[in-house]
Specification:
The chain has 416 residues and is an alpha+beta fold. Helices cover 38% and strands 21% of the residues. Strands 5-6-1-7-8 form a five-stranded mixed β-sheet. Strands 9-12-10-11 form a four-stranded antiparallel β-sheet. Strands 3-2-4 form a three-stranded mixed β-sheet. Helix 6 links the parallel strand 7 and strand 8. Helix 4 crosses helix 5 and helix 11 runs antiparallel to helix 12. The longest helix has 21 residues. It is globular and about 65 Å long. The protein starts with a strand and ends in a 39-residue tail after the last helix. It binds a DNA duplex (18 and 18 nucleotides) through helix 8, helix 10, strand 9 and strand 12.
DNA sequence: TCTGGGGTCCTAGGACCC
DNA sequence: TCTGGGGTCCTAGGACCC
């Protein structure tokens, strides 16, 4: 038996924890630059706000219904997420964290999974203030289905086991809600008259394999109750790391753009060291605003390799800036840029290079010192000169809530 | 005026090897 | 007229997830 925990409207719920007066009020959380809708409370959902919609198109509706808008506060969400998982780990020893607000649980040792889920749900709510839903079934994909159903149940828990019951639900379950079927596949399948999960189960497996390759086939098997996606080991390393941003205003100036690229590279290398990995490959991209098709368009993308895999911020930033230099066009206005590092190897398995003359031990020490200082007294306390002197990259966040749990200056005060 | 960020997996086809 | 068989590695692009 596999349980899937999903935090209800996670980001919106995080904002609500410290503002109980927002209970039953519509809440929307916005992406960077306060651009798109990325989370909605149930109240906001029923008012008709859509995921991913740009908020400026909805200004009037926001005012009309007195919707509470928030800029995204990922420091807060990340910390609350960790607390939720901490509580869960006290109940269950074998679990797989799937995303910031989802975790698969091994429920096979419980004689009464429903009771166990209920206890877990209540404890998470009590300890963190976050409401969760739990779907239970015998494969990951079916537990995802069960979780959908759970969202509408009174207790937010659904145990899906009985064969007839599974068929009943799959007959009403439209394909675009299935885990692993997105917009492309659903419109492709609908052309063949396949509208529900049940319809999909009637198809020939060879045909499914041809249509949706082996991943799609595995998903269909899971719907049939045959487990095809394993539990992931808790400490899988990342295969790539990316830092990218859209700018609130387009940038032409090379100096300014290079400061961003430098900052993105630095951020990537910090994440990389946290993973205890090194990178072999770096790619940099810069894009103009494709919502303004009349303006000159350019999508630059450049990849470069390191002779020796590294996690050194200085080396990584240097190569990234070289990429930028080679593709930057002075007659373009750039709206978005990013740095991706890939081909990651564990730091203790780095292949050395016969002509490598740099003192890697010394560089490592320097990076450790930087990470230590920034960890002690705050991000960017020490950084590279190439990223500029002041925090120019502060992206538009007008409605940012305090970082109640991760910043001393923002800690909640209670009057007794 | 204003449109997010960070990941994963799979496949076909080209280039190469013996 | 007729021209083999069995592999690996890499990349771009397509699909998906939250």
């Amino acid at each position: 038996m596999i349980g899937l925990v999903d935090c209800n409207n996670f980001y919106a719920s995080c904002e609500r924890i410290f503002r109980p007066y927002l209970e039953n009020k519509p809440i929307i959380v916005l992406s960077n630059n306060d651009g798109c809708i990325i989370a909605r409370s149930n109240e906001a959902k029923s008012l008709g706000f859509k995921m991913g919609e740009p908020i400026f198109k909805k200004r009037r509706m926001v005012e009309q219904h007195k919707v509470n808008l928030f800029s995204s506060n990922f420091a807060l969400y990340g910390d609350i997420s960790k607390r939720v998982f901490d509580v869960i780990s006290e109940h269950i020893s074998f679990y797989e964290i799937y995303s910031i607000d989802e975790v698969f649980l091994d429920f096979s040792n419980f004689s009464n999974p429903y009771e166990e889920a209920l206890k877990l749900k209540e404890n998470v709510k009590k300890c963190t203030g976050i409401p969760i839903s739990i779907g239970i079934s015998n494969t990951k994909t079916l537990s995802k289905v069960a979780n959908h159903v759970a969202k509408r149940e009174k207790n937010n828990i659904y145990f899906l086991e009985d064969k007839d019951q599974i068929i009943d639900i799959l007959k009403k379950f439209s394909i675009n809600k299935i885990w692993g079927i997105g917009r492309r596949y659903s419109s492709k399948l609908e052309k063949y008259g396949i509208y529900t999960a049940f319809d999909l189960l009637q198809c020939d497996e060879g045909w499914i394999r041809k249509m949706m390759n082996v991943t799609g086939l595995r998903m269909v098997r899971e719907l049939k109750g045959i487990s095809s996606f394993d539990f992931q080991n808790a400490n899988v390393r990342k295969k790539s790391i990316c830092t990218s941003r859209s700018f609130s205003k387009e940038i032409c100036d090379y100096e300014k753009l290079s400061e961003y690229i430098s900052m993105f590279s630095f951020r990537c290398s910090e994440k990389l060291r946290l993973e205890r990995s090194c990178t072999k490959t770096i790619s940099v991209f810069i894009n103009t605003n494709n919502f303004k098709p009349k303006k000159k368009q350019h999508s630059g993308y450049m990849v470069k390799d390191f002779d020796v895999p590294t996690s050194d911020s200085i080396e990584i930033t240097k190569l990234a800036l070289q990429c930028l230099k080679e593709m930057y066009r002075m007659d373009c206005e750039y709206k978005k840029a990013g740095v991706v590092i890939s081909d990651l190897v564990p730091e203790n398995q780095v292949q050395l290079h016969i002509f490598d003359s740099s003192d890697r031990k010394r560089k490592n020490k320097l990076m450790k010192a930087m990470d230590f200082i920034n960890g002690m007294i705050g991000r960017d306390s020490v950084r590279l000169g190439s990223s500029g002197v002041i925090n120019k990259w502060k992206i538009g966040k007008e409605r940012l809530s305090p970082s109640y749990t991760t910043k001393w200056s923002d800690i909640l005060q209670i009057k007794l």
